């Protein structure tokens, strides 16, 4: 036992000496295995990652992603074609030219000369038909008894002014000068015909919004929107011009130089005297107005001057000054200092790459204050995209008109500085002092013949219906809830996606069929292949003019009747407005019509 005492006393050191090597062996053995497993796992994970310095994705991922993207792209392209087909429902043409519309949208060489000439001669009738959509208040028929001279109220014995006999309820005072297309005197070009018809489609959208606002009203005394003072279509560079910036050549000039004396002096208020541009129609007591409601749309859309265009535009049928390119020498010497003879941009920031066309519009209306949001929503809900970018609200400048002892039948429009004096128009046709009404009598003393300084392409009876109005129409402007609303915005049109249609046709291995087009009377028409169907060839039978009836107020030459009869006969349009197509008994395929 005594011999074991040293071992017992030093047992800790003895056991420590024995266990330490064992512990070290166990630690390094386990650590080595763990390290080997870690290295193996890291190596495995590194093998799954993309090598550094390369952007090549995993092949399987790339193939599946390409499939998904192709499906998305096809869905987008199909949606574009669907939008185009929906847009075509409103792209109606008068029946006299419907069969000759080229299949390519806005084809600059698509129309034959005889077709453009036919359209030009019928254009005044199209504009008269267009303004019916807004249900305008027509001037008094001052020659109902056959005694009054044109332009001289109550001059004849027994003359008894009567309201115009029109087939619609008169709800809106259409005092605005409508945008009138300008054609070459000898022969209109295809581009001019396209531009004229497109503007008609755009104005139809605006007028339909006004009509819906008043659809449950019976007259102007009950209407929500009672007057349209300004209605303009324009283009721009797309680069907004800051407020207060000077008017560049081709700009709008803040309305100070455009519209005659500008809205500062030319749009002062109700009455009938003085002022320039549109001012004479709203002259008088407006000098007391402290707020200028009107604004320059160039602040939103940029200058309308086409910097890349040549100053010489004679070959395109354009005149000098203001909105000459499209609307003659009009709008009070220009929309604010536009370059004389300079070509104006028709669309906003247009380019070959854009799939849409955007055309600006500016309106000044008299409307019930509580219905302003409804009107803006109605515009936004149009069948074609419309967005309102800016609007100003101010006092009704006509509120004191009835109290100021306005004339019973309104005041003549005689001294309208923006439209020039009487008898100066030197265009293809002269309309003389005053003009014959399209629905009976004559509206004298007002429009006269558009002056050389005015809108050179004016059409009698189209717009400017603000004088010689019935007494109730004048009194209707004195409602306390009426305000002046000036607004501008953009109307969007989609270009024809012909490349997409062709691509989808090749991809599917068969012709892509457009949606069913709708005629103006609401009946469905047979579906035809998109490659041969003229996209805008839907016939508008409501605008057809009988061949045996003279065009009122502008007399159509005698040679027109024969041309029109021949054209209408060639169309073979059934009475119900549908287009008949025959099916082959063997296969039942719809035959493609011959291209015009």
From TrEMBL:
<keyword id="KW-1133">Transmembrane helix</keyword>
<keyword id="KW-0812">Transmembrane</keyword>
<feature type="transmembrane region" description="Helical">
    <location>
        <begin position="12"/>
        <end position="34"/>
    </location>
</feature>
<feature type="compositionally biased region" description="Low complexity">
    <location>
        <begin position="570"/>
        <end position="588"/>
    </location>
</feature>
<keyword id="KW-0472">Membrane</keyword>
<feature type="region of interest" description="Disordered">
    <location>
        <begin position="532"/>
        <end position="596"/>
    </location>
</feature>
<protein>
    <submittedName>
        <fullName>Uncharacterized protein</fullName>
    </submittedName>
</protein>
């Amino acid at each position: 036992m005594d011999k074991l005492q040293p071992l017992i006393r030093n047992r800790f050191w003895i056991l420590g000496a024995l266990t330490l090597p064992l512990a070290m062996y166990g630690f390094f053995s386990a650590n080595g295995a763990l390290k080997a497993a870690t290295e193996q796992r890291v190596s495995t994970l590194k093998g799954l990652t993309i090598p550094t310095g390369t952007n090549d994705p995993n092949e399987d991922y790339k193939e599946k992603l390409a499939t998904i993207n192709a499906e998305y792209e096809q869905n987008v392209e199909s949606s574009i074609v669907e939008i185009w087909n929906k847009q075509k429902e409103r792209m109606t043409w008068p029946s006299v030219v419907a069969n000759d519309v080229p299949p390519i949208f806005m084809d600059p060489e698509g129309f034959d000369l005889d077709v453009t000439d036919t359209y030009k001669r019928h254009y005044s009738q199209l504009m008269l038909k267009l303004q019916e959509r807004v249900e305008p208040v027509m001037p008094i028929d001052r020659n109902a008894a056959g005694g009054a001279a044109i332009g001289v109220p109550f001059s004849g014995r027994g003359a008894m002014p009567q309201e115009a006999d029109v087939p619609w309820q008169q709800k809106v005072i259409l005092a605005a000068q409508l945008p009138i297309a300008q054609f070459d005197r000898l022969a209109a070009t295809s581009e001019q015909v396209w531009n004229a018809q497109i503007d008609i489609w755009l104005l139809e959208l605006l007028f339909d919004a006004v009509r819906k606002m008043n659809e449950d009203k019976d007259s102007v005394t009950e209407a929500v929107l009672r007057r349209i003072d300004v209605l303009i279509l324009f283009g721009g560079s797309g680069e907004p011009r800051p407020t207060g910036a000077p008017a560049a050549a081709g700009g709008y000039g803040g309305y100070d130089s455009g519209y005659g004396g500008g809205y500062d002096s030319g749009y002062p208020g109700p009455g009938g005297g003085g002022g320039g541009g549109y001012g004479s129609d709203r002259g008088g007591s407006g000098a007391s107005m402290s707020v200028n409601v009107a604004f320059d749309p160039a602040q939103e859309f940029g200058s309308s001057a086409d910097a890349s265009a040549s100053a010489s535009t004679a070959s395109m049928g354009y005149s000098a000054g203001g909105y000459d390119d499209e609307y003659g020498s009009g709008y009070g010497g220009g929309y604010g200092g536009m370059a004389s003879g300079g070509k104006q941009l028709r669309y906003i920031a247009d380019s070959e790459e854009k799939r849409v066309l955007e055309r600006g519009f500016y309106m000044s209306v008299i409307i019930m204050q509580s219905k302003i949001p409804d009107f803006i929503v109605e515009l936004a809900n149009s069948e074609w995209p419309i967005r309102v970018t800016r609007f100003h609200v101010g006092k009704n400048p006509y509120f004191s008109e009835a109290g100021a002892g306005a004339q019973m039948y309104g005041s003549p429009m005689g001294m309208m500085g923006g439209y020039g004096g009487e008898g100066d128009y030197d265009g293809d046709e002269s309309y003389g002092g005053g003009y014959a009404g399209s629905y009976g009598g004559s509206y004298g003393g007002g429009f006269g013949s558009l002056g050389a300084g005015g809108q050179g392409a004016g059409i009698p009876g189209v717009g400017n219906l603000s004088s010689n109005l019935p007494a109730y129409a004048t009194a209707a402007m004195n409602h306390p809830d009426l305000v002046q609303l000036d607004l501008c915005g953009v109307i969007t049109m989609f270009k024809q996606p012909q490349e997409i249609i062709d691509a989808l046709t090749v991809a599917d291995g068969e012709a892509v069929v457009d949606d069913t087009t709708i005629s103006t009377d609401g009946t469905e028409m047979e579906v035809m292949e998109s490659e041969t169907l003229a996209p805008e060839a839907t016939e508008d039978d409501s605008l057809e003019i009988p061949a045996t009836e003279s065009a009122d107020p502008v007399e159509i030459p005698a040679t027109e009747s024969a041309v029109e009869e021949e054209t209408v006969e060639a169309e073979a349009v059934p009475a119900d407005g549908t287009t008949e197509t025959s099916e082959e008994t063997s296969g039942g395929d719809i035959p493609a019509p011959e291209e015009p």
